[in-house]
Amino acid sequence: MNKTFTLILIALAVALIAYNVTIVDFQDPFNGDSTIALIGIVASLCAVLLLLIFRTSKKIQKKIEQRD
């Protein structure tokens, strides 16, 4: 996976977070569609975190390969 592709995936995950925030009813966040939106927000945050970890690991791998 190259840098551009991971950035696109991160942007899509952030867009999903923004969309799901608009669905959440903050008066009753654990009822109906709000629960599904909260699950979507958490899942998108996990995806962003995993992609950032992946990018960091690729940077470390590249530095190790340059050193050898």
UniProtKB/TrEMBL annotation:
Transmembrane parts of this sequence: 36-54
Entry keywords, A to Z: Membrane, Transmembrane, Transmembrane helix
Superkingdom of source: Bacteria
Protein name: Uncharacterized protein
Organism per entry: Zobellia uliginosa
